[in-house]
Amino acid sequence: MGAILSAGCCAAQLACCFGSAACSLCCACCPTVRSSTTTRIMYTFFLILGTAISCVMLSKAVEDSIQQSIPGFSEVCDFLNLGTNCNISQVIGFLAVYRVCFSMAVFFFLLMILMINVKTSQDCRAGIHNGFWFFKLLIIVGICVGAFYIPNVEIFQQVWMYIGMVGAFLFILIQLILLVDFAHSWNSNWSAPSVFQIVSSIFHTLMICTLFFYAITLGGFIVLVLFFTKPAGCELNKFILALNLILCIVISFISVLPPIQKASPRSGLLQAAIISAYCMYLTYSALSSEPVSYHNEDGKKTVDNEQDGVVYSYSFFHFVFLLASLYIMMTLTNWYKATWASVWVKVSSSWVCFVLYLWTLIAPLCCPNREFPQ
């Protein structure tokens, strides 16, 4: 009897891979979960799987193994229409990562278009979003296989690299917005009166965390000065480092001004310290992308909780995953090569971060009649 019940449970979970129902992935071992949660977990699994395959493609051991196991490699190049100058780097390595991430980006782009204006789970398109996982996996594999047949590798590489830069920049902006919101939430929760009464040492903990992030900022600045500047030359690096350090000081000063504190009581140095540390990391990432010639040579059942309305935008969800695919591609390939385009993408990201945080400070002063979350 137990075997029959187990078989029924497994069959139900297998059916959801082929149908429009969301998977709980387990039977009695998991608590009841919402369909919106399991769906996002499955898409995250797809993204992680694509990332893992991309990492494998970058492995030198994989390259050697392919060369040894495929003696007639030229025939493979002819089969894939890779041209007469085909070599192993066109099948694996950076270009393989580009192709895998291209397939993920196309997959999420198609879903983003398909899910525009979905309001509730009663929409037939919501069933596609929340199920059919087996067929979705087949679609991704099919797009990935097709990506290896793309002709004109050089053109594909150049065009997709710049598309990846734009997508990665937009994904960084989303990260910055979430980071600013996280910093405000952290400071607000830790400085709440009720929490302060319960934990008498919370103020000291808050101060230690603030000093910790400022120490990271200062230490990062010193390291960048030592490794990316020299007394004679590197004027652009000196300018970027000096400007970003000044911006760190400016946002720290503005965050404790009396008018800012009055309009936004939860603002403080902790948020400014977190933003400063992250922007210093973006500065490092930008400087490390400079061309070498410029460098210093030194379950249970799933509950449908979206019948009355979706809890998140399906279309925007896939848009974010599309950008995440491009960001992962650029990160794994180290932005493919050292170019000034990647430098300015990252430098401008750090400046946008400062602007976003400054806006959260001055917005209550500029728009006094509007309510802002504290």
Automatic annotation (TrEMBL):
Family under the similarity heading: Belongs to the TDE1 family.
Transmembrane segments: 42-59, 97-118, 130-150, 162-182, 202-227, 239-257, 269-288, 309-329, 349-367
Highest rank taxon of the organism: Eukaryota
Matching Pfam families: Serinc
Subcellular location: Membrane
Protein name: Serine incorporator 5
Signal peptide: 1-23
One CC-aspect GO term: membrane
Keyword Repeat among record annotations: no
Membrane topology annotation: Multi-pass membrane protein
Annotated keywords: Membrane, Signal, Transmembrane, Transmembrane helix
Primary localisation category: membrane
